[in-house]
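Structure catalogue
Derive tokens from sequence
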Amino acid sequence: MKGSVAVLPPFLVLDQLLQSWLLEDIGRGDRTTQSLLSQNATIGQAKWVAKAPGIIAGLPVAARVFELLNPKVGFVAVKSEGAKCEPGEVVAEINGALDALLMGERVALNLAMRLSGIATLTNIYVEQIADLPAKFVDTRKTTPGLRILEKYATALGGAINHRMGLDDAVMIKDNHIVAAGGIGQAITRIRSQIPYPLTIEVETENLVQVQEALDHQADIIMLDNMPLEMMSEAVQLIRKQDSRVKIEASGNVTLETIHAVAETGIDYISSSAPITQSRWLDLSMRMG
């Protein structure tokens, strides 16, 4: 895969999120489990089994969910992060206090299924352009509260992470251009105020805007919703005038169109589809 290295944030960052999600599900207590079992008294074993083919993601996060409920729970990942699975394959094995296994089951599975679904669809997009230099990039269209994990999943699927938030880089979009009175005005004003390392990306919709972005030395030029013929012209224009500028294509990218977009010679193709359109990968926990 030619994407970002998928780096899971430290649990110092994640624990507060995981604890809040456990509290949401457990509430004032698990009426079923706590009525049946004494705390930590019964030891149980379980397996996670894949019910559909896909890319596995989120197992370290799932393991942490159980660990927060009981530090002695053992979670063994049978499949590696980013590995492919087939229906019927064991993905993970868990053992420990049965009450912790039952109380953590839903939150842990929900996270792993969601992230695995994103990694799976991301990988399908990445494979569509594997024979070309263009790289596939995610976006900020993420689920509030889950961005850091959803972008981890896209990286596992082979994508490049775009900016994590508004503070990572400057992206001048259509509404910014309107507010500033033009691309040139926007770039000039922003460049005078941002820290040195930040790059400036400009969203363009036609060749006139592309030229204006070039004239004001944008670092990255996004070709947004351009027809393929215009996109090819824009790529040639940019390459001829300033070879250092990176080119990104975005807007209505589908599995059917992504290869043709990559053939225009752009550097990056961004899409929210792996996050906004992916289906959860079906996993189940079986006690044994």
